[in-house]
Amino acid sequence: MLIGGERTANVRTFAQKKVVIVDDSRVIRDWLRVVLQMDHRLSVVGEAKNAVEARQIIKNTAPDVVTLDIEMPGMSGLDFLEKLMTLRPTPVVMIAGGTQRNSEATIKALSLGAVDCILKPTTLVDQTVLRDITRRVFSAACSNVRPLRRVTHHASRCASFTRQKHMPLILIGASTGGVAALETVLFSLDPNGPPVVIVQHMPGAFLVSFSQQLDRKLPQDVSLARENEILSQGMVRIAPGLGQHTGVRKVASAWQCYFTPNEGSWPYCPSVDHLFRSAFSMSDDIIAVILTGLGRDGAAAMHELHRAGSHTIGQDCQSSVVYGMPRAAWEMGAVAEQRDVIHIGDAVNDAVARHPNWLRGTPE
Predict the structure, then answer these.
(1) N or C: lower Cβ tally within 10 Å for the chain?
(2) Does domain 161-360 have CATH number 3.40.50.180?
């Protein structure tokens, strides 16, 4: 009894993170409350079934994080999120079904500033999944969110470029908060610049919607990576996941993506470390970027790329939703320059312009 009492006293000596649950389903609200309160770091301080109730509860409780259903009666979750991120920026974790419609709405929510997304359960879930849910909600509660800022395309400061035989390649790794960060970076890149290959930690179904959304928004050609596809200027390819990792290689001086199955030794799939490590032998031609995200994926491999001659760029603490992956890379000495996310695209353009195998053309 004494030991149990001591343990309880010890674990509650810090301030718990306050959570508000917003979902029109009583079943989901009850389930989420039980799951989240399994973690002593979290305290559910309010629940709401619609946007009107949520607005008042958030005002009264000032939560550290809100879980938000995408589909609600009256004001939708997306409309409520947009207002919340504009007027009272708060970390939000979206709760979504696994349909294609919900996948597209989830990507829009992440673009609007939601920190993360959790799929609603369709069957019984095990303790590993439950721990992952609480970890992600707690991580979101500790994240750094900014007021919603519309991303608009602006002309690159760089001249137009014409490729030579040995074209450089841009590799980007991102996780929590990466959707909005990637949009910001990609909008700033030269649309006719070197190809870009991205690993974004996200369920496979969401990656499909993410690639389609980016392709509609960006001047570049954006899609999921395809095995053995030749990568050329203006291409942006996203690792598809689905139990496999994406790597890059050169075949007759042309860049290609290739896939390898996840053998269980990587904590993330797709893995940033795996993508970066695949490029070690071509490090002189690599510009590697690590963006906001939980954990350390990509840091060790970026360190090796940096030591081997790649130019490496990391997102700074102030602009990161979760300063985990870029922090690990920075503290390891893997990052040549650390920038606010709004300046990373220009830093990549500058690195491309300095690359010996990239010929500057005539400014337009």
Answers:
(1) N
(2) yes
The amino acid occupying position 56 is Q
Q: Are 314 and 332 in contact (CB under 8 A)?
A: no
Please name which of 231, 157, 139, 248 lies closest in space to residue 194, comparing C-alpha atoms.
231
Whole-structure pTM value: 0.87
Per-residue pLDDT of the chain (364 residues; tens, 9 = 90+): 333 444 444 444 568 999 999 999 999 999 999 999 999 999 999 999 999 999 999 999 999 999 999 888 888 889 999 999 999 999 999 988 766 677 888 899 999 999 998 888 777 778 888 998 999 999 999 998 888 765 555 444 444 444 545 789 999 999 999 999 999 999 999 999 999 999 999 888 789 999 999 999 999 999 999 999 999 999 999 999 778 999 999 998 899 999 999 876 667 889 999 999 999 999 999 999 999 999 999 999 999 999 999 999 999 999 999 999 999 999 999 999 999 999 999 999 999 999 987 765 433 4
Residue 238, pLDDT score: 98
- Selection from 155, 169, 182, 164 nearest residue 352 by Cα: 169
Annotated active-site residue in 201, 274, 303, 306: 201
Domain boundaries, the chain: 13-141, 161-360
| Catalytic-role residue among 64, 116, 285, 297 | 297
Asked about 175 being catalytic, the answer comes back as yes
Q: In CATH, what class is 13-141?
A: alpha beta
Question: Do 161-360 and 13-141 fall under one CATH topology?
Answer: yes
- For the chain, where are the alpha helices, taking DSSP H only? 2-11, 26-36, 51-61, 77-87, 100-112, 127-141, 178-188, 204-217, 272-277, 299-308, 325-332, 341-354
- Environment class of 51 (CB within 10 Å of its CB; exposed 0-12, middle 13-18, buried 19+): buried
Which of 139, 156, 175, 188 is flagged as catalytic?
175
Cα separation, 170 vs 233, in Å, equals 11
- What does the angle CA 265 – CA 270 – CA 272 come to, to the nearest 5 degrees? 85
Rounded distance between C-alpha atoms, residue 21 and residue 263, angstroms: 36
